[in-house]
Specification:
Layout (H helix, E strand, L loop, with lengths): L13 H50 L6 H28 L8 E3 L1 H19 L2 E7 L3 E5 L1 H17 L6 E9 L2 E8 L21 H6 L6 H11 L3 E5 L7 E13 L2
Parallel strand pairs: 2-4
Antiparallel strand pairs: 1-3, 3-7, 4-5, 5-7, 6-7
Helix pairs in contact: 1-2, 2-6, 3-4, 4-6
Length: about 260
């Protein structure tokens, strides 16, 4: 556990400057340690359910209580895949939050980001019977972005929207001019988000409805990864919703480069 003590600071001489630097370092270490403890607690919580399911089925198979049917193996495989996804997502969010990835920034047209994300997601949307459209509003500033990383952000948002939108619903991805830049948004006609959850949906492992999210296969990390990548670009991301049953909208704001895309 980190020691929370700080150096006494007074005045503006060299010792005071050194003291402030020491206190800033101590605060940073304390924050890192708190994040580490929270991560360990979160991971233990997330691993418990799939591991308990696998253990129960393996024990049942060994005792002859559970039949080794295709359904049984299917459940075990599903939980194993869930564990694999969780491990992969943990690695991603750790790198993202610690800025341990390289951004290959380039002048990027928002239209290209939107169209690429929509084309990649279309098969999954068609399979579930959810409509997916894109809309570009007027002339847009070019943004400095890593197309692959921003593609990952939009893919996370589209996956999240699909998970929470029932068959027959629709999702729209838009790009519109905003003051000094561009806003990319993913809007859905799905379950919606209660006002009390809007500020917390980007927290690691946070779920407004834990049981529903787990049954849908979500790890609870995708939005955390999206936020970290957007913030590494110097942008912001926010969630909007008028409440349960009213759908949700996730908005990414990025600064423009200064000239219009074609």
């Amino acid at each position: 556990m980190c020691d929370a003590r700080r150096a006494p600071v007074a005045g503006s001489d060299e010792l005071a400057v050194l003291g402030r630097a020491f206190n800033d370092m101590a605060a940073s270490l304390e924050s890192t340690e708190e994040k580490r403890r929270q991560l360990l607690s979160d991971v233990a919580h997330e691993l418990r359910t799939p591991l308990a399911t696998i253990d129960g089925y393996v024990e049942g198979l060994a005792d002859g209580v559970v039949e080794p049917s295709p359904e049984t193996w299917g459940v075990i495989q599903t939980e194993t895949l869930r564990l694999g996804r969780l491990v992969d997502d943990l690695q991603k969010v750790s790198r993202a939050e610690e800025r341990q990835f390289d951004l290959r920034l380039a002048a990027t047209e928002p239209a290209g980001l939107v169209e690429a994300a929509v084309q990649s997601a279309l098969p999954a949307y068609a399979l579930k019977g959810v409509g997916l459209e894109s809309r570009l509003a007027g002339e847009l500033l070019v943004v400095m972005a890593d197309p692959d990383r921003m593609g990952e952000v939009l893919a996370n948002l589209l996956e999240n929207a699909l998970r929470h939108t029932p068959a027959g619903g629709r999702v729209e991805v838009t790009a519109a001019a905003a003051e000094g830049g561009v806003e990319l948004a993913v809007s859905d006609s799905g379950e919606g988000i209660g006002a009390e959850h809007l500020e917390r949906v980007f927290e690691r492992f946070y779920r407004a409805d834990a049981a529903r999210a787990r049954s849908g296969g979500g790890s609870g990390i995708g939005l955390t990864i999206a936020r970290a990548i957007v913030e590494a670009h110097g942008g912001t991301i926010r969630a909007e919703s008028e409440g349960r049953g009213a759908g949700a909208r996730f908005v990414i704001a990025l600064s423009g480069r200064g000239h219009l895309s074609r």
